[in-house]
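quick one, two chains, predict together pls
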Amino acid sequence: MVKKGIIKRCIILSGVVLMFFVISIGFFHEQLAAKEKLVIKIGVQPVILPELITQSKGILEKKYKNKYEISWIEFTHAGPGIEAMAAGEIDFLDAGVMPLIQGREKGRDYWAVGNSIGNVTGMVIRKDPGIKGLKDLKGKKVSYPGAGSWQYAILLMALEKGGLTIKDVELHRARFPEMPILMKKKSVDAFVGVEPFLSLSIVEGDAEMGFRPADELSGFFVVRPAFAKSNPEAVTNVLAEFHETSKWIKSHPEEAAEEYAKVFKGAIKKEVILYAIKNGLTFMDDIVPTYDHWIKFINSTNSYELTKIADIETFVKDFIHPEFAKKVRK
Amino acid sequence: MKNSVSHFKNHRRKLFFLIDIIILLILWTIVSFSSEVAYNYILPPINVVFGDFVKLIADGVLVQHITSSVLRTLLGFFLAVITAVPVGLLLGWSERFYSIFEPIIEILRPISPIAWIPLSILWFGIGENSKIFIIWLLAFFFIIMNAIHGVKNINPNLIDAARTLGASKKFLFFKVIMPAAFPNILIGMRLGMGVSIGAVVIAEMIAAKSGIGFMMERARTVIDPSPVIIGLVLIGLLGILTNLCFVKIENFMMKHRVSK
């Protein structure tokens, strides 16, 4: 009697579990369904980049609705995006220059096909009577994302300009979104970060711009080589729309700021984004990447020991593929 | 008399629970209003968080996030149960297999789920498989350890008695060992479910389109504390709910046992 009771209960429980299993498979079935259109998987990050507006306005979906199936995959930062591209999970990504170079150095395979955005990085200094310039950072606390980052190189450049070295400041590692909060709490006296967090501190009245490298090309569109080889037209088409979006942002900064604020759901306010667009960020006029720029840049990262690339020319020629963006320029 | 005493204890428990919630809400309000930074960036007031919660429900977004996380958790947990329980029983039963596999388990067990994420992306991509792998991994070790100890801690007199009465190995395993180890296995499953909920949040922070972890990480990236707090509360509630479910399952499965 007791035995039959246990067996009955086991059967009922197994049935319930199996039902959940079946529902789960059904829920995720879209991944198993065959696609007729070319599926393009684009990695995005929730920062001020042109493709965020391309995504929010559904530009690619509307223009190529019969040709492409666009899948947007969000990453919190570039690292997991690069891993995903290496695993063949995404076809496009817009990422910062340092993670891209370091990823290539470690053997990750992708091609840089277009210039995305410039002047994303800078150093802001707390508004304080005792801190009038970079030289007054001696003995002060500076927040940065960590050694090996491009922001670390910016920090070294900024300190050099103020006649200081890394040993003259007290370093604190933090993530970019945390930096303006640390600044507001006066836990740090300066931070080296990225937009829109630099503009957030400035607009909130907590800091002012201390150092920004001139003509810094910060972000690049990269593509999975196998995808690019089999779908060169798709690469050019997607780049063209990203470039059109960049041009639209430059000519319509207010509307762009409003669109970004909607994407960020109001946490990063419109006035902060507008300040970043008007005073810092550069949306590229020319989308075509050049070998000279990259060679110069990698010489710089080698000199700061962020990279150890011996044969820079070969590295750059393997990595940079301007042929797709040149068709956009035409 | 007995009924009125237990009735009173029940009411008193509910009253204390209510008092705890009120104290928490008061502390929350005090911290929110303590500074501009706390108000805007760290712990917005209850009414602001509640307003955002209502907006997320109205958009349908929150239900989608909860559904994604729950389904991933259940899948990963289910896979952990069907792999860990038989393996745990075997390792608990066979000293030879235990001595071979125990060092591997002890090496892999303490590794944090965050450390597994880059490998899981490379092995399984950024789809559901990598997330379910992380959940499976964490739940697996909790369940297997409890299954092993469940078997090893069986009263040896039970086994001796069964053997004396002529029980075969098969009978011993299925009719004595398994039922005796079952309470421990259930404990392992309950703990495994708890870590599964934590694991899914971590796995979703890396690459996902939905889920509580995705919602929280995205909100953190754009300095929007409300969804982070909503996520924390939801995780807590899911933990309580799954624990209650396990208590019910335990009572249901162990109904045949004579209560003392």
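The radius of gyration of chain A is 23 Å.
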